[in-house]
Write a structure and sequence with these properties.
The chain is α+β, with helices and mostly antiparallel strands. It has 3 helices and 3 strands. It has one domain.
Length: about 130
Amino acid sequence: MFKVGRRAMHNTNFTNSHRQRGVSKIGLLMLLVFITGFLTAGLKVAPLYVDHNLITGICQELIENGEAANMTVSDVRNRVANSLRINNVTGFELSNIGLRRENGVPIITVAYERRVELIANLNVVAKFDSTLQ
């Protein structure tokens, strides 16, 4: 068996413990602030994209079912408004939905931007412009 003297073992432990330092309190605090900032931004921005996917999903479903071919723009807006009310989506202007036809094919456009206050006077602006056919 391999034996190491006390002195050699003591020196090894001292040099290893001197090299292997943990995270300082300031480093841990900075990491906590960094993670908190990302979580705050994510929790405020993610609902914008969830709402947009809901709106475009409703419009895409109208096109795929063939219902949009026989609808007016106000019919499309009413259908979207009913779905948004059921899903508790607020702050969306129905005038941002447009409907046009090219060669008998309905094309629904959804173009708008949403602004969310991130921290104090710092805002995030998300711009959406989708064309569905």
